[in-house]
Automatic annotation (TrEMBL):
This is lytic cellulose monooxygenase (C4-dehydrogenating). Coiled coil: none annotated. It comes from Verticillium nonalfalfae. One of its GO terms (biological process) is cellulose catabolic process. It holds the Pfam family AA9.
Amino acid sequence: MKATTALLSLAHLASAHYTFRTVEFDGQPTSEWGIIRKTANFETAGPIEDVTSEQLTCYELNPGSHGAGVLNVQAGAAVSFTSSPAIFHPGPSLAYLAKVPAGTSVSDWDGKGAVWFKIWQDEAIITSSGISWPSLQSPTIDFDLPECLDNGEYLLRVEHIGLHTTLEPQFYLSCAQINVSGGSGSYSPAGLLSFPGAYSMNDSGLKANLYWPIPTEYIAPGGPVGSC
């Protein structure tokens, strides 16, 4: 009986974890890991739990051997990353871009250094009964690319941060490889970030206690979203 209970508990923990392995642009699907760099948790769906981990860049299974295609997309496209399974934990969802340096291909680039900028985050919903996020229990993370991006190749990093255990954030993420066209080139990032490096356990958005007392505000890590 104890063994059965332990197995059920492990199964529940596994089901509480998730990956982002497919993405749609303007309703057009891509194949599993087709343009997304295969993540190290592709079998376990387990999170990164160290805020200083080198895997926070793209959580790649084989760094340096990216093994993903590149998709041509329009600036302003509607993006939908599928969570497999649905997002189970409370916490923010975020999206970042990093523009590939001139003379380099996105397929060969590691995304290291202060090159990332935040383009979207879902905002916390705070009521007298608690705090939640729109992405909780959602099978997708949905947002739009800015219409004013520079044209060119980018890494697109999607992330969900599980905050269900106080002071023990869990990071679920992946990176897609895209080539943007049709942008006006006027996007103004709020700041350039590195992964790792963008987050610290001193960030209020990572050490927040979601349960009691109920937070009166929530500020996601990674700074503000840029603007056109």
